[in-house]
Automatic annotation (TrEMBL):
This is hAT-like transposase RNase-H fold domain-containing protein. It is found in: Nucleus. The keyword Phosphoprotein does not apply. Keywords: Metal-binding, Nucleus, Zinc, Zinc-finger. Its main location: nucleus. One of its GO terms (molecular function) is zinc ion binding. InterPro entries: RNaseH-like_sf, ZnF_BED_domain_contain.
Length: 211
């Protein structure tokens, strides 16, 4: 298996620990977050802020009235008019881009949801802990994204280019486990995929891995 494929598998494992990706499918139903109180990161992970965000993005984008009002909110906040991005289940990096964009537009989103005309959407309001969880998810997903970008910039990546980056990816995730102990279960999901591949690579000839 090629290295990019292994990275994709690791990222899918991470996403599986973060969120229910079935809600990212094109014709998936809207996710409805539970009413449980969120006071810890563990609470936030269980409530699935990514699925909550994904559905909010979807319902805003689906309505011209909501899109227009969201643009007006950004203008009132003197922000650049940016669209919310929706992720898809076929490209893991799209979830990172969606999270990055909603974090950038956090103030606009909160003000949008404060409008009484959209009271039915308030169930998608994120708590501060859930916003913090999305920040942590962004950091975790940024690691393989940087790795992928580095490889894609090389016309013909070689083992001498890939292996150090591969080890660096494991090293950064290990450091993140120390910085974000509440996210250990999420990070471990990706690290286990990478480490299982590394263990196999120690007994498989290099020319086979490069195929």
């Amino acid at each position: 298996r090629c290295f990019p494929h292994i990275v994709n598998l690791a990222c899918k494992a991470v996403l599986g620990a973060m969120t229910d990706m079935s809600y990212a499918a094109e014709n998936a139903a809207n996710y409805v977050p539970n009413d449980d109180s969120v006071t810890t990161i563990a609470d936030a992970i269980r409530r699935d802020p990514v699925a909550t965000t994904r559905t909010l993005v979807r319902v805003i984008r689906a309505s011209s009235i909501r899109r227009q009002y969201f643009a007006e909110v950004q203008k009132a906040l003197q922000q650049k008019d940016l669209q919310l991005l929706r992720d898809v289940d076929t490209r893991w990096s799209s979830t990172l881009l969606m999270i990055e964009r909603v974090l950038l537009l956090r103030e606009a989103i909160n003000r949008f949801l404060s409008n009484r005309e959209f009271e039915e959407l308030r169930k998608y309001q994120l708590s501060d802990v859930e916003w913090d969880t999305l920040e942590a998810y962004k950091k975790i997903l940024a690691v393989p994204h940087a790795f992928q970008q580095r490889l894609s910039s090389e016309k013909t990546p070689t083992l001498c280019d890939v292996v150090p980056s591969f080890e660096a990816m494991l090293w950064v995730w290990q450091r993140q486990k120390l910085e974000l102990p509440d996210m250990a279960c999420v990070i471990d999901a990706g690290m286990m995929k990478l480490e299982s591949y590394r263990n196999r690579s120690e007994v498989v000839p290099a020319y086979v891995l490069a195929m």
